[in-house]
Amino acid sequence: MPAPEDDLALLERAARDAGQIALRYWRKHPRAWDKADDAGPVTEADLAVNDALHDLLMGARPEYGWLSEESEADPSRLDAGHCFIIDPIDGTRAFIDGQDHFAHSLAVAKGDRIVAAAVYLPVRDLCYSAFADGPALMNGQAIAPSKADIDGARVLTYRAATDATHWRGGVTPPFQRDFRPSLAWRLCLAGQGRFDAALSLRAVWEWDIAAGSLIAERAGASVTDRRGARMRFNSPRAMIDGLIVAGPHLHEQLLGALAP
Questions:
Q1: Has 87 been labeled as part of a binding site?
Q2: What is the pLDDT of residues 33-50, one digit of tens each?
Q3: Is 86 labeled as ligand-binding?
Q4: Global confidence as pTM
Q5: Residue span of the structural domain in which 101 resides
């Protein structure tokens, strides 16, 4: 089997190829429609990127499983020793709106652990990457989380997560809420220390966070689900019970402040 660093080199190349495809459609009014079951929007660019990534990645690693937001579920992935976990365009609404905050999120799971990851923002030419036991990098430079305290921390999350009912004693901690459309990028920004934490109290799809979770973890952040448990990937449901990503001290504070 290829080493994690070899898988990472493949993911980085694939992510940059994906960026070139996405930019052919960006701000050019791509066809877009809503998926069934209120699963959100999709565009012709999402599908074009997904097809190209599938051809490249599965062509290079035909023995790996495949899990992607834009592919039909394939239960054979559960029996594969390794599995690609892919979000072709993370932040599709931002992409449709012509914003530059969308990303390509690519990861490899070995068993239930992520061992290689790349998150690429093509408009900004930002590439975050990590492999198991290696450093977390942004365009080749090492990144690390902040050492912030919860008081005044800059937390990337959605508005409803600040509702007092989610917090112990009905009191929302005094952090500052910010937001970015791409969930994968939010995890990277927390790992980079550009923001202090990323938080979701809702279940999240594996393809949204697989790559970012390893990048933040290898940067030195604590990365868990909303209950403080280790994340396990390539699961039958392909979902994680929320997330808390922050430097160890802030992670402990956020976890302790949440309502049981």
A1: yes
A2: 998 887 789 999 999 999
A3: no
A4: 0.97
A5: 4-142
